[in-house]
Amino acid sequence: MTYQIAILGASGYTGAELIRLIATHPYMQIAALSADRKAGMAMAEVFPFLRHLDLPRLAKIEDIDFSTIDLCFCALPHGTSQEVIDKLPRSLKIVDLSAGFRLRDAAVYEKWYGAPHVHPELQAEAVYGLTEFYRDEIAKARLVAGTGCNAATGQFALRPLIAAGVIDLDDIVIDLKAGVSGAGRSLKENLLHAELSGGTHTYSAGGKHRHLGEFDQEFSKVAGRPVLVQFTPHLLPMNRGILATVYVKGNPGQVHETLREAYRTEPFLRVLPFGQLPSTRDIAGSNYCHIGVTGDRVPGRAVVVAVLDNLNKGSSGQALQNANLMLGIEETTGLMMAPIFP
Amino acid sequence: MTYQIAILGASGYTGAELIRLIATHPYMQIAALSADRKAGMAMAEVFPFLRHLDLPRLAKIEDIDFSTIDLCFCALPHGTSQEVIDKLPRSLKIVDLSAGFRLRDAAVYEKWYGAPHVHPELQAEAVYGLTEFYRDEIAKARLVAGTGCNAATGQFALRPLIAAGVIDLDDIVIDLKAGVSGAGRSLKENLLHAELSGGTHTYSAGGKHRHLGEFDQEFSKVAGRPVLVQFTPHLLPMNRGILATVYVKGNPGQVHETLREAYRTEPFLRVLPFGQLPSTRDIAGSNYCHIGVTGDRVPGRAVVVAVLDNLNKGSSGQALQNANLMLGIEETTGLMMAPIFP
Amino acid sequence: MTYQIAILGASGYTGAELIRLIATHPYMQIAALSADRKAGMAMAEVFPFLRHLDLPRLAKIEDIDFSTIDLCFCALPHGTSQEVIDKLPRSLKIVDLSAGFRLRDAAVYEKWYGAPHVHPELQAEAVYGLTEFYRDEIAKARLVAGTGCNAATGQFALRPLIAAGVIDLDDIVIDLKAGVSGAGRSLKENLLHAELSGGTHTYSAGGKHRHLGEFDQEFSKVAGRPVLVQFTPHLLPMNRGILATVYVKGNPGQVHETLREAYRTEPFLRVLPFGQLPSTRDIAGSNYCHIGVTGDRVPGRAVVVAVLDNLNKGSSGQALQNANLMLGIEETTGLMMAPIFP
Amino acid sequence: MTYQIAILGASGYTGAELIRLIATHPYMQIAALSADRKAGMAMAEVFPFLRHLDLPRLAKIEDIDFSTIDLCFCALPHGTSQEVIDKLPRSLKIVDLSAGFRLRDAAVYEKWYGAPHVHPELQAEAVYGLTEFYRDEIAKARLVAGTGCNAATGQFALRPLIAAGVIDLDDIVIDLKAGVSGAGRSLKENLLHAELSGGTHTYSAGGKHRHLGEFDQEFSKVAGRPVLVQFTPHLLPMNRGILATVYVKGNPGQVHETLREAYRTEPFLRVLPFGQLPSTRDIAGSNYCHIGVTGDRVPGRAVVVAVLDNLNKGSSGQALQNANLMLGIEETTGLMMAPIFP
User: Fold this and answer.
1) Nearest to C189 among A185, A197, A198 (CB)
2) Averaged pLDDT of chain A
3) Above 90 in pLDDT, residue B1?
4) pTM for the full model?
5) pLDDT for residue A188
6) Which chain A residue is nearest to residue C189, measuring alpha carbons?
7) Nearest-CA distance from D282 to chain B in Å?
8) Of chain C's two ends, which shows fewer C-beta atoms within 10 Å, N or C?
9) Which residues of D fall below an 8 Å CB-CB distance to C?
10) Nearest residue of C to residue A236 by CA position?
């Protein structure tokens, strides 16, 4: 059985990463690609690294015949995504990679994204796409909302700890280091090689980053009470990868054991032996997430470090994992390739 | 049918790249891994990016039972390689990735490598592993000698042109830019991040680089007369990739057409439309080689640019392609994954 | 004596580099800075690395009082530069860093820059700013045209050789590797960190790069006959630095001796011992240019490698060196700081 | 007046940075350089970027005539440093850059460095070299112990806050991001470009980093009670720069005001306007330290971010600043050069 796949917004990094992954997927075929401003172009012109693939030309969304499509990935900006998805056939399975449907509460959405949600009924319908924690709902969903890449990393480090009640919920610090591809292919001065290479800086510090909306929603749901973490992202001179250093108060051994137990059967989440901490290099290009825990000389403090590839496990890999579930394909299909190093 | 594979010298970059590629190969299973100084260690300790794989522990070569092995990759230093391969069972198929068996002439070997060849009879037996030009011999060979990564890049740009007689054989300049993984995991001051990042320099310039031995042997053989190219390698602050800028005298259109025709049916060699030149980013992590040709305002001059991934198509990918041929597996098996970008 | 300095176009990299250099110059004071679109802003907002300096706010050019200015650096785009300089007081000394006045012939200018020169009389007046070869004219000039950074590098490698007649004038190849700051602070996709880091590619290959206009003009003038070099620039994942690998036909020893003799008393041009080749890391952040020569196993061929910092010796350092001459200050003033490494 | 300077251990990065800085210092002359294993070599061989300077050859320490030396910088490993300094003439002023004399308590030294101090009487004599807080003692000292580069960064962010009692002393987290030159020119696998570029990882996490000894000593002294911070360093793919993200509990406005007031007259410490956070790019190559403060949506939490160049302000710049004080030279002499960007 081969499923026909459409990717809307194929001219950005997450769209290209989806194509890279699906290129060797045994049960999926790319039937349509959209990119409004680049409609008519070949993918080889937009992303020459995909030159060897036989792909459909980029089209405008309105020119795509969705009647033959089984599943549609939507890698558009979150505002556009809301408009576009509303117009797609209701029979179509959709995995959205934008921030358009991640938050359940319309008021919270408006607070973090600065404008009211255009289609609150779709917002209500969408299932939050953190695969390992929403597997059953995702398998049955029509519309799945991919998580933020930073939000995924922080949740992999923290959800089992919050659920198990082994850490102080009022004192959680997530210090996050992010590669630049997470910012997309947008033309901004601070993303230029000359500006970014060789240095680092914070961004959206002081409780301002939008992924806090996801942290608040999910952590509070898990805890059954409000949980407000501190979250400081830093931009690093690297293309792929997120490393979240999470400071928690609790017994380090218990913290480690809780995570190890929670992810014992997960194919993509690996908890390292106690005291070992992971590197972003060890997951680049893959759908794996490595997690380590260590203690401190100050008793009752633990440091959890989680790493993943923002474009893969943090975005397009997660999306494909969810799509597999939605189509009834084995969840790991097309996602088992090893990271690339060096 | 699953073939049992051994990799000798698994603690270097080419060994690790072989494991990465074979990890998703449908007909190969890694049965033994060697690394003398790291014998007893798990691969996850040596290369944590392979942590997710279920691999045999590193062993000493003498502790490996080769009776169950179908094919052995040898990723050892060229001197060691000669000693080790001589002692392996004659029934074993071997793909050597070192410089140990690339040169057919014992005197030439000694000239470039500074010591006599230890096993000239093996040197004579070995087939030169430039797949696209030695396919039939490789399919029948017991021992295949992987090419130098720089040597492969230059030959992809030049062999058809020399064979077709469309360029001046006495005036060929190969200006090559190489990523640092080609130098291996060796501890040298000039390979440190603090020394290498942010700058570039030549190495082995002035006709001193050992891959000149391969160029001389192969180009002279193709031309039926001595051909001596100029070759200047540069080390670049990038991990993977080689870009060879080749200056030739000949009709640019004819140069382009000759290459296009020569590689028309090759699965991994792509000749771009005339005037387009490739980037190393578009082949990183893959077995593809992209080639472009342009002319100059000075008539009768052409520039050929070829790019490939030194660890993949230039080394471990080529080795796997050859192993497929030697085992009667479809040549492209396990090698069709897309490059990784960004 | 303190000279009052204006810098027009201070929001680009060459403008900022001028400020960095002049900050510790004992006889110059920055009295005015312009940046039309950023007028009103403080330099600390545009370039926070200059935060510690007490600098005038950015102004529109028309709001600057040039009556108190002794010398004006013009770091504007070449089209704008022509318009602006025409309107500046004739009493003002001007060092232009753009391509606006580098070419003497109006037809040649139009050919390379695609539009007629707006002020051919200024074009005729301007002195070509390659300090080491136009020292006397520069000292007397009102308007000096800074050279292209690539053009400077190639000329340092070749001018003495062409003048001395020690190389074949019809067979010169300049393979150049350039850092990304040479492309300026412009927002282009291929200059993004995610696109540029970790790889390399050619640009303006095949006889199309505009600096060929300078090479043609200068080399033909020196030779007394037309000289057309081949020139292929490559963009490298590094911020500062140019390395030009120049292939010439001639006696390598004579080539080396000619360069060594030519630059024996030059404060910023260093010729290395024969056989040693320079690295861009050794001149980054400085006004030095290092040059090396080696031979080849093919007799009668030499490779000359020249490195300099495109923003410093290739642009703003050269401009300051010229300004010193124009103001009667010792030429090396403010330019003797060591490169920065690592 | 020109002071004669010796630098012991001139073949490492901090030694080279000292030479870079002193090269343009108006009152210092480099009279002797040592590097035991490289004795006899010219600096241009060891660090070609210093090729333009007229420097003494590297010598063995025992071959240096200290009778004409006014001040000696000691950039040796901490064990060696203790032995060497004990043998130097007592009349010599010494700035040590190692960890040999930073800790006052012999037991604490042994705990962090794993061996007893060889010369506890020198340990007792040495003044801790954090210039801004020990200015008077340094001016009178014979032996000054340079601080750790990470230790300096954390102290600039925290000392005034601890002194003023505006933060909770039992809940301080320092999440630090460090460039690789801080690890020195040592040949370690994880410092190779192929291993380090493009990724990040923690090191010495979990309360194990030796600079904790300095934090404990200094913060406890300032507070008048034990203060134990949490400290997690990360290695980043950049050559120069440290960014410390410090999480404190206290009123953000008060935190900002305390730092601003404390550093109001400091020439090298700049506190940014509230809410602005600094980048390492803005201090690279300079002796400046930029500090920013922001609040959080969780009341009573503040984030302090401090950046400095580990080789300059964190090491050799600090050493020169201290040497100026010890010699009675204006403290900022030779240190006012602007950072280098891009």
Assistant:
1) A185
2) 97
3) no
4) 0.98
5) 95
6) A187
7) 17
8) N
9) 13, 16, 19-20, 23-24, 47-53, 181, 197-198, 239-240, 270, 278-279, 281-286, 288, 290, 336-342
10) C193
A232 closest CA partner among D162, D243, D159, D229: D243
Distance from CA of B271 to the nearest CA of A (A): 11
Question: Residue A26's CB: how many other CB atoms inside 10 A?
Answer: 9
What is the mean pLDDT of the segment spanning D167-189? Answer: 96
Q: What is the distance between the alpha carbons of residues B174 and B243, in angstroms, rounded to a whole number?
A: 10
A181 and B342 within 8 Å at the Cβ level: the answer is yes
For residue D32, list its beta bridge partners.
D6
List of chain D residues whose C-beta atoms are within 8 Å of the C-beta of residue B183:
194
pLDDT digits (tens, 9 = 90+) for A195-212: 999 999 999 999 999 999
DSSP symbols for D168-234:
-TT--EEEEEE-GGGGTT---GGGBHHHHTT--EE-STTTT-THHHHHHHHHHHHHTS----EEEEE
The pLDDT tens digits of the residues spanning A134-189 come to 999 999 999 999 999 999 999 999 999 999 999 999 999 999 999 999 999 989 99
Contact A342 B240 (CB under 8 A): yes
pLDDT value of residue A196: 96
Residue A239 dihedral angles phi and psi, to the nearest 5° = -85, -40
Determine contact, residues A208/A264, Cβ cutoff 8 Å: no
- Domains (range + CATH), chain D: 3-147+313-327 (3.40.50.720), 150-309 (3.30.360.10)
Main-chain dihedrals φ then ψ at residue C26, nearest 5 degrees:
-75, -20
Min CA distance, D48 vs chain A (Å)? 21
Alpha-carbon distance values, C25 to C320, D287, D291 (Å): 10, 18, 27
Beta bridge partners of D308: D242, D289
Nearest Cβ partner of C280 from B200, B239, B243? B200
Yes or no: say if B315 and B302 are a contact pair by the CB < 8 Å rule: no
What are D49-99's pLDDT values in tens digits?
999 999 999 999 999 999 999 999 999 999 999 999 999 999 999 999 999
pLDDT at C124 over 90: yes
Write down the number of H helices and E strands in chain D.
11, 14
Is A149 marked active-site? yes
Closest CA of chain B from A302, distance in Å? 23
- Burial letters C290-299, b for 16+ CB under 10 A, else e: bbbbbbbeee
Average pLDDT over residues A248-253: 98
Distances (CA, A) of A296 to A176, A300, A302, C55: 19, 8, 6, 47
Q: In C, which residues are within 8 Å of B194 by CB distance?
A: 342
Distance CA(B335)–CA(B131), nearest Å, equals: 13
How much of chain A exceeds pLDDT 70, in percent?
A: 100
Q: What is the pLDDT of residues A86-130, one digit of tens each?
A: 999 999 999 999 999 999 999 999 999 999 999 999 999 999 999
A44: which residues sit within 8 A by CB, 6+ positions away? A50, A51
The pair of structure tokens assigned to B253 is 């259109």
Chain A interface residues (partner C, CB cutoff 8 A): 13, 180-181, 183, 185, 187-189, 191-198, 237, 239
Find chain B residues with C-beta within 8 A of C207's C-beta. Answer: 295-298
Please report the ipTM that was assigned to this predicted complex: 0.97
B178 has which bridge partners?
A: B235, B242
* The total number of residues written for chain C in this structure: 342
Average pLDDT over residues A299-319: 98
Cis check: omega of the bond before D120, within 30 degrees of 0: no
D9 pLDDT exceeds 90? yes
Rounded CA separation C207/B247 (Å): 13
- Residue range A45-69: mean pLDDT, rounded: 97
Q: Determine whether A79 is exposed, middle or buried from the number of CB atoms within 10 Å of its CB (0-12, 13-18, 19+).
A: middle
Give pLDDT, residue C204: 97
Nearest alpha carbon to residue C110 among B164, C118, A311: C118
